[in-house]
Design brief:
Elements (H helix, E strand, L loop, with lengths): L2 H5 L6 H11 L5 H7 L5 H8 L11 E7 L4 H5 L3 H17 L6 E6 L5 E7 L19 H21 L4 E9 L11 H13 L3 E7 L7 H7 L7 E2 L5 H19 L11
Parallel strand pairs: 1-2, 1-4, 4-5, 5-6
Antiparallel strand pairs: 2-3
Helix pairs in contact: 2-7, 3-8, 4-7, 6-10, 7-8
């Protein structure tokens, strides 16, 4: 299934209506709505919504969302293969889990390219040399708002259909924000706070050591809890290990656990 085929099943403006509905029901605060209004997110979010609710057979759903860094520093540090393999490792671990049929995955690169919208695991596309070319900037705040907006909209869509949903999201970067023009940590923090208040979302972040960035501060300013922050050293081995840790947490969330824990538990 392609994201274009999926988009045709929804009227234009569907994503914006889902966000508006979430605000009306109290799921999204005024601060979050203001963050989402900083940029016209409708089309970008709708591109990630993926599978139609009518095509979801599971009685409950887990949304696993990843935002791999595709900035040029990934290539400069020779970490392209490690990030690619890490993403693929997470998918493989989820496919082996007993709850694989309840998991829907979505991958949007840090610069906005949708590798695949929310799809069943067997339709999720592996990252490879042909579809992953880290050669861009690091609009971390702008794109995190887009990504979290997509998680919120998809969760609202499922909830409106009476399908219980849990989510686990991973942001990946090897540097601080460079290129955001509309959003800052304040806007991200508003969204994260609303999501965490619902107690069915995990939002995690991986900061690959670049020698200068204080990733703990960057992610704390974005509202990410310390227990969900990974800071691997800048080596393929450490990066793959960090993805392995995240994959274990993603599998745990799909089994109904890990919300009160963290990477150290």
């Amino acid at each position: 299934m392609s994201k274009n085929d999926d988009d045709q099943t929804r009227p234009k403006g569907a994503a914006r209506k889902l966000l508006d509905d979430a605000h009306k029901t109290g799921t999204l605060s005024a601060a979050s709505m203001q963050a989402l209004d900083v940029v016209d997110l409708g089309a970008q979010i709708q591109a990630g919504l993926g599978v139609a609710v009518d095509d979801v057979a599971a009685s409950e759903v887990v949304l696993v969302t990843m935002m791999p860094d595709d900035s040029n520093s990934i290539a400069w540090a020779k970490n392209t293969a490690a990030v690619r393999d890490g993403h693929n490792l997470v998918l493989e671990a989820l496919r082996r889990s007993r709850q694989a049929g309840e998991v829907f995955a979505h991958c949007r690169y840090l610069n906005g390219h949708v590798l695949y919208p929310y799809v069943p695991l067997d339709a999720a596309i592996a990252m490879d040399d042909h579809n992953y070319d880290p050669c861009h900037g690091t609009p971390l705040y702008d794109q995190t708002v887009v990504l979290l907006g997509t998680v919120i909209a998809k969760s609202a869509e499922l909830a409106q259909a009476g399908v219980p949903v849990r989510t686990v999201t991973l942001l990946i970067t090897d540097g601080g924000d460079y290129g955001s023009t509309r959003c800052g940590p304040k806007e991200v923090r508003a969204l994260v706070a609303d999501m965490l208040a619902q107690e069915n979302h995990v939002i995690a972040a991986m900061g690959i050591h670049d020698g200068t960035t204080d990733f703990e501060k960057v992610f704390r300013d974005m509202g990410i809890p310390d227990r969900w922050i990974l800071t691997p050293r800048n080596s393929p081995t450490e990066i793959r290990k960090a993805f392995q840790i995240f994959s274990q947490s993603a599998v745990a969330v799909s089994s109904g656990g890990a919300f009160v824990g963290g990477f150290g538990n």
